[in-house]
Amino acid sequence: MKQIVLSIIAYAVQRDIDVAKLCQLAGIHLAVLKKTNAPPVTQQQLDALWLHGARLSGDPLFGLHFAASVQPAALGIVGQIIQTSATVGEAITHAAALTHHVTDQCRLEIARSNKSFTVRFIPAGGNVNEPTMAFRSLVELLMVITIHEMSGLMLEKITPLTVRLPYNVPDAAAYEQVFRCRPTKRAGEYALVFDIRYWEEPILTANYELQELLLKKVAAMAPQQPAKAAGTLRTRVYNYLLANSYLGIISLEEMAANFNLSPRSLQRKLKDEGVKYQEIADAVRKSLALYYISSGSYPLKDISYMLGYNELSAFTRAFRRWTGSSPLQYQSL
What we know:
The protein is of the alpha+beta class. It has 3 domains: about 1-60, no CATH class; about 85-200, no CATH class; about 230-333, Homeodomain-like (Arc Repressor Mutant, subunit A). Helices cover about 55% and strands about 10% of the residues. It contains 18 helices and 5 strands. The chain has a 5-stranded mixed sheet, with helices on both faces. Strand 3 (about 160-165), helix 9 and strand 4 form a beta-alpha-beta unit. Helix 12 (about 230-245) runs parallel beside helix 15 (about 275-295), helix 13 (about 250-260) crosses helix 14 (about 265-270) and helix 16 crosses helix 17. Keywords: DNA-binding, Transcription, Transcription regulation. GO terms for molecular function: DNA-binding transcription factor activity; transcription cis-regulatory region binding.
């Protein structure tokens, strides 16, 4: 969070904004913020920074334009881990598992099919379809960083197949320029869809040894951040299921073996985090169901089979339980 705030302030300087006034309005003491042991920036301060940055610049798209200019350093150690990953797929998977080190306002989910992969940005709360300006700026920032940072790490310019937002954008041409794809509106969804060919694309700055050191540093930070670190295993299990969804929803035994645990140990560790393996698997099924239906590329019967349901009626009942509507009703939204 601190790195994002410092990056916003640096961008404000480039936009000739009165930084002293901006920080005062946001309740931020810049001299204190620069110190190594500075207290954490609050969500309220970040919200105010977005709001007053737009007002003082006279630019209602201040957040979007900042996102287009931001450097990987804004993500701190998470950005470094992304940069040292071996492939785009590995980088995205790490980003999803480590989002809580950047913000607690949303989390990332990944889903793969044989043609594409989708990165979803899931809000922690609030009205998804009518977000505050601050939350909207934050999620758009994370989405744009996902596109631009990946492009800067490989010998190809990444262009999403689809960009989905739960609202109509105020300036479609400006959004298309930054996102490299004109966003489409879909209720309740912030998502980027990419061609699957990017998944195994090697990253130019890959460095296994350095990444191992960075991951150990992140692990060492966990005791200092108990609230943010909560659910780490749950997140790893969830993202592993999503990233490998083309294999189907694997069993508890297979998942335990992947983490070098016995099934009983995995169950116990998840129980300590207040969740069961089946609940995580069901959450993944829901995410995949929404993705497959939204893509428009799969008959409902095939989706039902891919998610492990022997009967379409069983899938329909589960989908209605998750969303309050049937798959056919959701398709028509």
